[in-house]
Amino acid sequence: MSLRGTAVIAGIGQTEYGKLPGRNPLSLNVEACRKALADAGIEKDVVDGLFVKYPTSTFHSMYGQTVAEALGIQPAIGGVWDQGGAANASMIGFAVMAIEAGQCDVALVTFADNPRTGTRQAYQRGWGDDAVYGWFGTPAGYAMIAQRHMQQFGTTSEQLGAIAVACRKHGAANPGAQLRNPITIADHQASRWIVEPLRRDDCCLVSDGGAAAVVMSAERAEELGVADPVPILGFGQGQTSWEVAQRPDLTSTAAAVSASKAFAMAGLGPKDIDIAEIYDCFTITVLLTLEDYGFCAKGEGGKFVEDGALELGGALPLNTAGGLLSETGMPGMQLVLEAVRQIRGTAVTQVPKARTAIVSNQGGIMHTHSTLILGR
Amino acid sequence: MTTRPEPEIDERNREYWAALEEGVLKYQRCLGCGNAWLPIRSECPRCLEANWTMVPSSGRGRLISWVVYHTSYHPYFEDKLPYAVAVVQLEEGPRLIASLVDEPSELRIDQRMVLSVQRDDGRARAAFAVDRDYAR
Ligand SMILES: [Zn+2]
What we know:
The structure holds two protein chains of two kinds. Chain A has one domain: Thiolase/Chalcone synthase (Peroxisomal Thiolase, Chain A, domain 1). Helix content of chain A is 34%, strand content 18%. Chain A is built from twelve helices and eleven strands. In chain A, helix 2 (63-71) links the parallel strand 2 and strand 3. Chain A is globular. The two termini of chain A are 19 Å apart. By secondary structure, chain B is mainly beta. Helices cover 6% and strands 32% of the residues of chain B. Chain B is globular, with a radius of gyration of 16 Å. Chain B starts with 13 loop residues before the first helix and ends in a 6-residue tail after the last strand. The chains are: A alpha/beta, B mainly beta. The A-B interface holds A 124-137, 139-140, 143-145, 147-148, 151-152, 192-197, 244-246, 250 and B 4-8, 13, 37-39, 64-71, 73-74, 77, 80, 82-83, 85, 87, 95-99, 104, 108-109, 123, 125-126. Strand 5 of chain A pairs antiparallel with strand 4 of chain B. The site of zinc ion has 8 residues of chain B, from loops.
């Protein structure tokens, strides 16, 4: 039995993105949920599932209950799911499964954080005892993978730059984006090294903000008179437990497992996808994901992205609101929201006749991966 | 002046760090299933038994990948920039994070490397140099 299309994203909501002094993650969660409920056109009383990713910058025990209390709801099922940046898309899949299993009827999935005005320490920590070697921070893990990919397949920094150029171009067209200046390959090449071979323009933003989605069955959406529900055609997850140093293959990732499950549920393949909202915490993440999703062969990501294929009007418009590199550094939920807008036909950078969108979320250093396929 | 970050030494990893002080890189080998691994852990991640011993590595391996830090995430490394960090696979199988002796411009993946313990300040650490005996 396939769950293809049995559930929908009935509503989406978000706060402003960027630097939001004076706002805390709880307040941002409430605003995002309030707007998502309003977008779905439903009252909060019907919500009986609440799935929350805790703020990455500061861990809170029992945070799902904290958010439920702030929302004044008593969900039957829910709590916090910790998969790093993969969690938001994964929780949408869990919500669909919970609905299908009769464990809840209407679910809210929400995330908010304020690492820009708060602390960004979570991204800069040493990796256990390997801090002795100066092995610190998230960018270095991705740089280690990028270096291997470059040497193994001839991928260049300029090709990674093409990914940043596409995201920055789309962010520049989005009035709600945090970073709105487009760049050229030359600008990318002139940006300073963070951890070589990754440059500043290969690295995502650090942002405050919140975003939420309402999930329910297609049937319930009809009963409740939801104006513009977007069907969830497929979802999947994939994970590796190995840290970067122990991982047997640095350049093939669990995105392949995740996508194969999502494509199988949807009965679709890469050629059927109109728009890609791919987690771009770093440019190399996009390259690996496109390869592992089957949009091109392993090792050919550089060639696939270098000639504008990812830009509006290209073969596979990518991160049409700017992604983590330009819209907001938020870990993943913004990509789901943009996919919903594109399928509804209400996006600022609307791709004509967009009928299918694939969304990737991923966490750690390519440890956890989650895929959603939305469409009609 | 800030000092280099220190590992957390406990009963499990004391022998590992003590061996490095003697110029030897040790890894764990399971006496039940033969699995070999790093970093130090309590149970074999293949058979899950705690029946292991520590074995000295030949110190030979190959370079899986490396990065060069141009950003410091800890005060100690501020005046060490740029510095390199590598992933090396020992010929016995285990992989580890280590420092590099050679200039990054001389490096390529899968190159043969040889252990060259560094103790320039504080605790002895695993570092690797290009193995000139194998250099092509
Ligand atoms: Zn064993």
